[in-house]
Specification:
Strand order of the largest sheet: 1-23-22-21-20
Structural class: mainly beta
Strand content: 35-45%
Number of helices: 1
Number of strands: 26
CATH class of the largest domain: Mainly Beta
Oligomer: single chain
Largest sheet: 5 strands, mixed
Helix content: 10-25%
Shape: globular
CATH topology of the largest domain: Methylamine Dehydrogenase, Chain H
Radius of gyration: 30 Å
Length: about 350
């Protein structure tokens, strides 16, 4: 046998080369596997988000009162806000044009009652206390486009009336005023100068009770925002946004941001954040959904028809929470060639059962 010399350094170098090559190759394989796994995870997440939006929400229909029968009241006398809740949440006021009696009148509904109570002729009622409200009284010819229309303060218990904030008539826009909103917190009046529209329009000019102009209210329709509702703490807002060629989206957006978290999309029309901050109500076609802002969970709480019916013309147009967040007023609007009609409902939202 020939004797071979043993060189430890040479053997180590040879093994090191083999080991290094195998390690690099293994690392490359593992890296490719990690990238593939990450791509799969990203696709699953994106698919889950899209699926969660596309999946029909669960249903928990709540008790409801129908305040106005179908086809009885015209949309001519509609104003924003479409209802005014009493501060204690035990009643609401609204104005409507009764087709049968041919009058624009203010009505009161006490929670739980089966009938409306006629209060007076007029429109745009706004509670200022549990027993008093302000409304817009027409002139003797029944027109709002006249300097003789007047803001009236009425006591519900006694029926007594007196003119309210007479100095407001000095406004250069008074002749064009069609409705108004009273703000108890600011003790101000927001004057509306246009007719009722499909999407919410709060008004344009704000005045104090002495008749002095103190601000301007701008619509956000030019931004593609058809309705919005601020959270009670003011840190964020829920909004319905419209973009050309895309479905409308419901978003929760932080103050000062241009985009937010998308919670729903579809034929959305209106949104209202509850005063207690726990629920966002959204109108879509002929349904109303409750959305939990903490996790985006959504429940259909009212269905007034078949949203898939191509002949269905009605749609949920406005939403308004009671001050205690227990009740939700809903305006269902019916556009017709012969005239627009309204149906007003109140939903009992006090016992929603979220399915976990």
């Amino acid at each position: 046998m020939s004797e071979q010399s043993f060189n430890p350094a040479s053997l180590w170098a040879s093994n090191r080369h083999k080991f290094t090559g195998q390690t690099v190759e293994a690392l490359e394989v593992n890296a490719r596997r990690i990238v593939i796994i990450l791509i799969i995870i990203a696709v699953l997440i994106a698919g889950g988000v899209l699926l969660s939006r596309a999946r029909a929400p669960e249903t928990w229909l709540v008790p409801a009162w129908q305040l106005t029968p179908a086809g009885r009241y015209s949309g001519i006398a509609l104003t924003d806000p479409f209802v005014s809740w009493a501060p204690d949440g035990r009643s609401l006021l609204f104005s409507a044009s009764d087709i049968k009696l041919r009058r624009d009148a203010v009505y009161q509904w006490n929670v739980g009652e089966k009938k409306l109570q006629y209060i007076c002729n007029g429109t745009s009622p706004n509670y200022i206390s549990n027993d008093e409200f302000v409304y817009l009284k027409k002139n003797i010819f029944g027109s709002f486009f006249d300097k003789d229309k007047t803001l009236i303060l009425r006591n519900l218990s006694t029926g007594e009336e007196r003119e309210f904030a007479p100095a407001i008539k000095k406004s250069q826009f008074w002749n064009e005023v069609t409705a108004f909103t009273y703000s108890p917190a600011r003790r101000s009046l927001i004057l509306r100068l246009v007719e009722f529209t499909r999407y919410y329009n709060p008004g344009t000019e704000e005045y104090d009770l002495s008749g002095r102009r103190i601000g301007e209210i701008k619509t956000r329709l030019s931004e593609g925002i058809v309705d919005w509702s601020n959270a009670p703490d003011g840190r964020c807002a829920a909004l319905v946004e419209e973009k050309e060629g895309a479905p409308l989206t419901l978003q929760v957006i932080d103050k000062g941001k241009s985009r937010g978290r998308v919670l729903a999309e579809g034929q959305l029309s209106c949104v209202a954040w509850s005063p207690d901050g726990k629920t966002i109500a959204v109108g879509e076609s002929v349904t109303v959904s409750a959305v939990r802002p903490s996790d985006g969970k959504r429940l259909i709480v009212a269905r007034f028809g078949d949203p898939n019916d191509p002949n269905e013309q009605r749609y949920v147009c406005r939403l308004s929470w009671s001050p205690d967040s227990r009740l939700l007023a809903v305006l269902l609007y019916t556009p017709m060639q012969t005239g627009d009609y309204l149906e007003t409902y109140v939903l009992d939202m006090s016992n929603i059962r979220w399915k976990e």
